[in-house]
Structure formats: structure tokens, C-alpha cells
Amino acid sequence: MKINFLPFQPHCFAFGGFEVQMLATFDALAEEGVKVSKMDVWSRNQDFEILQCWGLDIANYENIKWAKKTGKKVVVTALLSYYETFVEKTRFFASSLMYKQKIIKEMLPFIDSIVVLNDLQAEVLVKNYGFPKSKIFIIPNVVSDFFFKKRNNTQNGDYILTVGNICERKNQISLAKAAIKIGLPLVIIGKTISGEESYGEALEKISSKSENKITWIKGLQENSAELISYYANCMIFALPSFTEQQPISILEAAVLGKPILTSNRAFGKQDYYRNSMLINPSDENSIFLGLQNMLTAPLKYVPDFEHLLSCKASSVATSYDNMYRQIYEK
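Above: the chain sequence. Below: its structure as C-alpha cells.
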């Protein structure tokens, strides 16, 4: 049984958490002895049985269709919106009639299984897309073993930490203002993504006027010793995003036993983040009050470690391997 990985887009055009997870999953499977390869789009070699696509979107339509025509099994790892608001639900309905979601629904009969991150996304897949529950597999993101090994060797520093691409969606400016108001240092780790330059400039202005209360480190290699050290020594980890699926940065902080502040949106309510302080990301004062409450009893906001064990590389690899074998043998 050979599996061929196909990314959603070339990594030179866009590279973020989803792409990091793609590679982490690939490495975890290879480590467990599963025969995985990365697709060479120039090669005519069809010596594989399962096409593993990353991303349930129209960009993969032709790839999925042709894979089925050549007798391949097709697996898609998907990132789905939770469709929480009336506006989101209305847009989905309209798109299902005439545009993007209509095409995605046309792809579904060609797909043998879809991997989602949690129960909430599985419900979306059944309710909004009508995809059979029996073909849905729930497998969380991978957290590097480096974080698990560091769990018992951490310290509580005096700073708040946030990690991720700098963009309006992740709401770093509101967090920075709240941190300044409460008087705690904030360490921001991440690069400004393309198209968000004005947001990055606004954050730069706030940082420069913060009297050294804000430290912005513009990118560190994932799983590097320096990055893990910042996680291990922070007081609170915060990610007050407006939208996410299953941010790896929160999982990494949670594995290290750090108190978590995140948003009261659907993504923040999944079991992996249970006990986190949930705030309204649209309200800067809510972020401030959340941080203030956390200072009085920080351990109250540390997620349950038991839920995080399924994020170990070996566990994720085993779950994918079991799924591949199940659809391969049908």
C-alpha cells in the first residue's frame, strides 16, 4: 500500500500551519514505516494506491476526479469553516447553489474518506455537505515530540506569548493593546503574511511605542529549540483569533502545561483546548479582563493533558495508517 501526498498549492506561494501539518504528518507516517511519497507532478509513474490530498477545495477537483478514473483511492484532509454566524450560513447556502460550494459538493462522490480535526467539523461535513459519517475520520494536528519531551522542564516567566502569522484574522493588535493596558510584557512570534502589510505596519507602530513591553520576533523555525524555549518560559499563551480551525500553536502551548487564552468561537471550544479562558475577540476589554482573571488563578486555565496525547506524532500516524488500510481493503 503506497500513499502519494498532494499539497493544495505549491509551498512557495503559501506556507502556514496547514502546510507544517502536512509535512509533520508525512514525517510521522514515514517514521512508522508507512510507504508515503510526495507527488512529482512531472512524473508519469502511477505506482501508488492512495492519493492523499490536502484541502477540500475546487483547486483539487480535477486531481481527485482523475485519481478515481485511474483506480486510486482518494483521501482528503480538510479544513472547514464552522459556519457559526448567520452571514456565514447564508454565504454557504448561496455558494452551494451557484459557485464554490456547489463544485465542492460535486467532488464528494469521488472521495473515499475525509479527515477532519474534531467532532465539530465532522458535524459540519455531515450537516452542510451531506457526506456520509462512515467515511469521516477525526484525526488531530501533530504536536512535535520535542514539545512533549520539554513538558516537565518549563518555567513560568513574566510574559504573554502569541505565535502565528501576523494578520488581522489572528488579532495581534487587540492582544497587544490589552497586554499594554494590563502592564505585562508580550512576545509576538511570526511574520507578516502577504496582503497584510498594513496590519503589520500598525502592529509595528504599537510595538515601537510600548516602552519595550512588546517584543516582536519576526519568525522562528517551527519546532526549533529557540521557539520551544519561548513557549516553555511564558506565563500565558494567547491567541484571540477571529477564525481558526485547530491552531497548532495552542496545542503546543497546552502540551507544555501553559494557561491558554483564546476566543469564544467554535474552534476555541474543542476538547483539546478545554479549560482555556475564552474571550470575545471583537472586544479589546474582554481580552484585558480575561488576562486579568487568569493572573489570579493561572492553573485553572491549563487544558487537560489526556486529550493532547492523541496529538503525538506516533498516535496521528497510527490513526492515518488505520484509515488508509480500512479504505484500501474495501
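The chain has two domains: 2-142+312-328, 145-310.
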